[in-house]
Write a structure and sequence with these properties.
The chain is mainly alpha-helical. It has four domains: 240 residues, Rossmann fold; 74 residues, Glutamyl-tRNA Synthetase, domain 2; 48 residues, Helicase, Ruva Protein, domain 3 (Orthogonal Bundle); 96 residues, Arc Repressor Mutant, subunit A. It has 19 helices and eleven strands. The strands form five sheets. Strands 3-4-7 form a three-stranded antiparallel β-sheet. The protein has a two-stranded parallel sheet with strand order 1-2. A hairpin with a 3-residue loop joins strand 5 and strand 6. Bound molecules: glutamic acid. The site of glutamic acid (GLU) has 8 residues, from helix 6.
Length: 499
């Protein structure tokens, strides 16, 4: 009866219960790119189907819990502008949504499996299991439990329980046959049962393992589709055996491709930041990051790259999710972020930049900040870059080497004279707007017998301290007459002093 095919029928496409999906993060780390790609695909699927999206917290690995991880997750969800229908903070009819608060539900099912002979108590000590693993390694055998406790007599079990011996509960995997499940992305997946060992379903501390807990919850929470990372594919045959033993119909599975670095290895810190907080701090826009994540493993089948969330909801389909790993390319993400930055209105850009600019920018009103940020809009890849690029607007005194003022083919005296005349011009010019400045400074360049590239670079360094800035005259116009005059004069003094 173990492999009775009639009992392992999955939800068929014909029966259409309301879609219910979930994301089931373990609070053992801070939210990262991978969590959110899976989050997003589940969310898009739920919204498209008018279904429910559940967050369930899988906190059964008590030793690895990280304080604040759940709050960090919900904060990040809100930062992305996404939501959830049931779960932490919002509750819901299938709660509690924290596995540590659901222990009786798991115990009930574990007891049932033991009663039915589908699971058994195992008293092997960690020392015995370590030794077993070492022997298996030495013999180059795959690691796995040798089922020593599977056939203990009831009397023997009663004796060991009475003696208070610690034990775990293991699932009794069928010794032969094979297990198949259908995956919406990978098709039929089959495993030989003999390669699966008798895995633990209840630990000695009374907490269930992931294998049991997530499955019981998926069932009692009436989850219809499990969209999760493909690192769980090899565990799914075990889950199918559990569903069968419990007499439950499994949900539909879709295992999502892993996110890889450009070297096609699993994405990790070696490839750059992976935590959502790092992207937030660096000044990535949630809408750009979401857009990019939407394309990490899914393709629309057209050339379209820029998607609003609404468009993603409309177009997303599991059929177009790739089987193979999705490359996470920071340079490509920068491109997306730049596109979204350029699409912003001036006021919005100023508002969103402000938190990245530190205290010095705090004195500026919105109009002033808007004028400055407008200069940089075309060249910003992240909001976080702005502070360094814009710094010359916020400091009193520029730090640069006087030698930077002198351009190729110019003497020191020529540079001083050029800057002195530039200062005079800045003081006298009627209108300090970019067009007027440009034509006046071109005339001055001719008068001085210099090339525009020479004089303009000297003025740029004098007024910004940098050699690469937004267009010079637009920048000067925003800096304003007084500040330009002061800086040009200071440059003359510095050079004269260095002679
Ligand atoms: N708690 C598991 C994880 O952190 C969930 C896997 C699943 O979705 O079944 O990845």
């Amino acid at each position: 009866m173990i492999n009775d095919p009639t009992r392992s029928t999955q939800h068929s496409a014909l029966s259409t219960p309301a879609v219910r999906v979930r994301i089931a993060p373990s609070p053992t780390g801070l939210p990262h790119i991978g969590t959110f790609r899976t989050f997003l695909f589940n969310w898009l699927f739920a919204r498209q189907k008018g279904g429910a999206f559940v967050i369930r917290i899988e906190d059964t690995d008590r030793a690895r819990l990280i304080p604040g991880a759940i709050e960090a997750l919900t904060e990040a969800v809100r930062w992305f502008g996404l939501d959830w229908d049931e779960g932490p903070e919002v509750g819901g009819p299938y709660g509690p949504y924290l596995q540590s608060e659901r222990l009786p539900t798991y115990h009930e099912q574990v007891e049932r499996l033991v009663r039915d002979g589908r699971a058994y108590r195992c008293y092997c000590t960690p020392e015995r299991l370590d030794a077993l693993r070492a022997e298996q390694q030495a013999r180059k055998e795959p690691p796995g439990y040798d089922r020593l406790c599977r056939d203990l007599t009831d009397i023997e079990r009663a004796r060991r329980d009475a003696a208070g011996e610690p034990s775990v509960v293991r699932f009794a995997v069928p010794l032969d046959g094979s297990t198949t499940f259908q995956d919406l992305i990978h098709g039929d997946v089959t495993w030989e049962n003999r390669v699966l060992d008798d895995f633990v379903i209840l630990k000695s501390d009374g907490y269930p393992t992931y294998h049991l807990a997530h499955l019981v919850d998926d069932h009692v929470m009436e989850i219809t589709h499990v969209l999760r990372g493909d690192e769980w594919i090899s565990s799914t045959p075990r889950h199918m055996l559990l569903y069968e033993a419990l007499g439950w119909v499994p949900p539909i599975f879709a295992h999502l491709p892993a996110i890889l670095g450009p070297d096609r290895k699993k994405l990790s810190k070696r490839h750059g930041p992976t935590g959502i907080a790092a992207f937030q701090e660096a000044g990535y826009l949630p809408e750009a990051l979401l857009n990019y994540l939407g394309l990490c493993g899914w393709s629309p089948g057209t050339d379209q790259e820029i998607f609003s969330l609404k468009e993603l909801v409309e177009q997303f389909s599991l059929e177009r999710v790739n089987q193979t790993g999705a490359i996470f390319d920071h340079a490509k993400l920068d491109w997306f972020n730049g596109v979204y930055i350029r699409a912003m209105g001036p006021q919005e850009l100023a508002v969103r930049l402000r938190p990245f600019l530190g205290e010095t920018a705090g004195m500026l009103d919105d109009d002033a900040l808007m004028a400055i940020s407008g200069l940089f809009q075309d060249r910003l890849k992240t909001l976080g870059e702005a502070r360094e690029l814009m710094d010359f607007f916020f400091v009193d005194r520029l730090e640069y080497q006087a030698a930077m003022l002198i351009q190729k083919g110019m003497t020191v005296a020529q540079t001083i004279e050029g800057l002195r005349r530039s200062a005079v011009l800045a003081a006298e010019i009627a209108s300090f707007d970019p067009e007027a400045l440009e034509s006046a400074y071109r005339v001055l360049t001719d008068e001085l017998g210099l090339k525009p590239l020479q004089l303009f670079m000297s003025i740029r360094v004098a007024s910004t301290g940098m050699t690469a800035t937004p267009p010079l005259f637009a920048t000067m116009a925003v800096l304003g007459r007084e500040r330009c005059l002061r800086r040009l004069t200071a440059a003359v003094e510095r050079l004269s002093g260095s002679m």
